[in-house]
Design brief:
By secondary structure, the chain is of the alpha+beta class. The protein has ten helices and 15 strands.
Length: 326
């Protein structure tokens, strides 16, 4: 753990990495601007982001992006007192940290993208229920077809999110729980309501600045605490306070926020950490994403998987930090 945190915080403190992030942000803004000029929808806009970031690297960090063509992945679940089927999501974000081929940390975020029209959007309450709560679900079509009673633990409540595109080239990333709090029973919202909704939920974590602490061998004690808490089924409250690497930003108000947070590994639910699986079925799902992005050649992944090949019609974006590389 000590090597991981030192490497991570030295990366955040590196002015060259900050320049790398700003350069990528400028490139994506340019692409989204072109997309809006062409009146493109959210699928095309997400594809533009992925194509712009694909293959970008800085020292031990490398970004992998793929557009997967397949059937949409619909899942069936009970919404309150009735069964329903909804699409799981159209953008899959995975962040993974490794030491060579050994995985150290893995995060997953399933995102549903929508367009803002005049600063407003209509939200399907069943889709929001799925991405906020992840109830037991079965596969009705796509990757989970035939699977029964799949359960994502979603302990940190960071697994599901929405991405809202807005002309002339902006993107707002919102945690599903924060959006639910903003809606407060309504089916639509305005952009200006997001800040107050996030604040009221106590989840508005805006900003990317982080302290670089003088790490010491005492981190081994924290590793032991992590192992004990995991075995007893507890979340990671203490470790998440030590470094932003172990937490997740909930509301990102523009594309600049989003790209900096994602390339800094501050988006998504922790599904695997230090040889411990925290969310088995979510980890299996994210491992399928890593295989589809071609990372099984560089990272040792567990053999178990849901339905084998990742065949969901979606865009996948993977940020991989190998701390063994300079």
């Amino acid at each position: 753990m000590r090597k991981l945190i030192q490497k991570y915080h030295s990366l955040l403190a590196d002015p060259g990495f900050l320049r790398f992030q700003h350069a990528r942000i400028a490139e994506v803004y340019d692409q989204l601007g072109q997309g809006y000029t062409n009146n493109e929808g959210e699928v095309a806009l997400v594809t533009r982001i992925a194509n712009t970031l694909k293959g970008q690297s800085y020292h031990g960090l490398r970004i992998h992006c793929e557009k997967i063509h397949g059937s949409k992945s619909y899942v069936s679940f009970n919404f309150r007192n009735k069964p329903t089927s909804k699409e799981l999501g159209d953008l899959i974000l995975v962040t993974v940290v490794s030491d060579g081929k050994r995985r150290l940390l893995q995060k997953l975020c399933i995102v549903q993208n929508k367009m803002l029209r005049n600063g407003k959007a209509h939200i399907d309450e069943e889709q929001l229920f799925l991405l906020k709560n992840f109830p037991l679900f079965s596969g009705s079509k796509g990757m989970f077809r035939g699977a029964k009673d799949v359960v994502f633990r979603n302990t940190q409540m960071c697994l599901g999110a929405y991405g809202f595109f807005e002309a002339p080239g902006e993107l707002i990333h919102v945690n599903a729980g924060v959006l639910s709090n903003t809606l407060n029973g309504s089916s639509s919202f305005t952009k200006t309501a997001l800040a107050s909704g996030a604040s009221n939920a106590g989840q508005h974590l805006r900003g990317n600045d982080t302290c670089v602490f003088p790490w010491s061998d005492d981190l081994m004690i924290l590793h032991e605490i992590f192992c004990i808490w995991h075995k007893r089924g507890f979340p990671l409250p203490l470790i998440s306070l030590i470094s932003p690497l172990f937490s997740s930003q909930r509301t990102l108000h523009d594309l600049h926020d989003f790209i900096r947070a994602w390339t800094s590994f501050q988006i998504g639910e922790i599904v695997y950490a230090f040889d411990h699986t925290l969310d088995r079925e979510a980890e299996m799902f994210s491992n399928a994403v890593l295989r589809a992005a071609g990372l099984s050649e560089f990272i040792d992944l567990s053999d178990d998987n849901i339905q084998g090949e990742f065949s969901v019609d979606s865009t996948i974006m993977v940020s991989h930090l190998d701390i063994s590389k300079e």
